[in-house]
Description:
The protein has helices at 53-68, 99-106, 111-130, 181-186, 191-207, 217-226, 236-245, 256-263, 273-279, 381-391, 415-419; strands at residues 11-12, 15-23, 27-33, 39-45, 77-81, 88-92, 133-134, 143-146, 149-152, 159-160, 171-172, 316-317, 333-334, 337-338, 343-344, 408-411, 423-426, 439-445, 452-458, 471-477, 480-482, 489-493, 499-500, 504-505, 516-520, 525-528, 531-534, 544-552, 559-568. By secondary structure, the chain is α+β, with helices and mostly antiparallel strands. The strands form ten sheets. Strands 1-2-3-4-6-5 form a six-stranded antiparallel β-sheet, with helices on one face. Strand 3 (27-33) and strand 4 form a beta hairpin.
Amino acid sequence: MDELRPQDPARIGVWQILARLGAGGMGQVYLGRSPGGRLVAVKVIRDEISDHPESLARFRREAATMETVRSPYTAQLIEASLDASPYWLATEYVPGPTLREAVRASGPFPPESALRLFAALAEGLATVHRHGVTHRDLKPQNVILAPQGPQLIDFGIARGQEWTALTQVGMAPGTPGYAAPEVLLRNEVTPAADIFALGATIAYAATARPPFGGGDASAVSFRTVHEDIDLTGVRDDLAALIRRCVAKEPGERPELATVIAGCAVDSALTADAHYRSVARDTEAVPEHVSKREPEAVSTAPSAESWRWGDPETTPYAAPDPQPPAPARPARRKGLLAVCAVALLVPLALWLLPRQGDDDQDPEAAPTTGATTGSTTDRPTAKDDQADQADQTDRPPDHIVNDRESQDRWALSDDPEQAAQGIGSCDLASLVDSIPPAGLQSSVSYTSGSGTASVSVRPQAAGSGKRPAPYYVSIAVRPPHEIDRTTGRPLDSAGKDVGFTSKPVDLYSRWSSGGTIKLQYPDDFRAHFDDGTLDAIPVNDDPGDWTVVLHHVQGGPTKYKTIGCNGFHA
């Protein structure tokens, strides 16, 4: 918990405010104390969104859900003020760190402890489901490790079967890396989606790593839909149970009773030595409140006190079922988009715009993280014809590191996003090229491994006639410049192209799924006019790594940027 700030209220309702407990996408959570000495958590909706009907409905739904779900695994609603601003609700205060805080402080759970936590959370979810409610945002941040057992919190986007969905068309509830594939693709939310999130949450507890890697939120979502969960180093029996829960198809996931039986626990979680050690890792409740004079009436924090948007607790954009229309190139920073209520992020990593149709209105064309700008920046028909002619030529063995790269990926400045490895790319050089239709790619890095992997595929692989060859080379650039003599990182920031892969036809695996996988550093070298340099392991240069996709159009020096991403090591 954090100390109060000058703009924070001294009192909300009957509750005297003692400290800050945290913040979410809808508001601030405070530690409060009743006149009789009872501690509560008071959640206040922020002023600037309290007039938005959907946000207010979501807040009221959270209160209704908490009142409906009475369970040892959920904090109980004590009081709520939902008729006039400031809107707030008070729940019982549950001491203890979140699962994410505990793992970050103490490392992964031992296998037996993870199985006991698995069973306890499955039992808690089963209780929630018996009340006809799906949580829809289970993740390590929404599990408190209380002394009496784990508690599920934040039912802000939970939904009962009889309730109308408040999520807008095209938006998917949940958090990248924990939301199930059917939620991401179709906004299809059933109890099976909670089981997927449960498996991903236990994977984090067992590995101390994001279950589907870090990077852009869109990259994490892409891997969730198309790639395997990261269970490196997890004991076989625990890994097998997690894999069943995170099956891509909801019908293949086990029932919660089956999960509990599969954990085969023989003692209480609260008696587990590791759980007891992390559950005790809590901050002391302040003995004294601020010396400020209490305010005469209830107030909510001022607008200046709020942090705008929380990608871990707000809905985000699901993919359009059709490949997006073309975006007009121009330099821009590839940041996550924010709407009036929620942070929105596209699903598919590097799901780049299709080649434009002549009858489409460029002003109305949506974007997907590629660039927009004036039509004068677009390649001419003559350029396109030249590019197509180049594609029929035999590709070079490599591309030359002969220029300063303007593309740079950086970890987000937002602590919550940075904790998940989320960042953004400055698409500086994506101004004179148009990526092929439906190009998809992902980059993943396993902490401590020294390696990274990159996958690229055309979205329409296997359907219709195989397109003409389109050669791509992937560049991976370390955070710092590499000394060509010693192969060691220097103090200066990396500015060149970096280590590159051999150009390969994007459509070379058209009939077999289309995915091309490359491993860094094995498949990468830096090529200069006067020699080559082997790629260095990721561990040799901690920091923000940039990954750039290039379209190779002829010789070793003829290539253009068509996509950018990265990861933090």
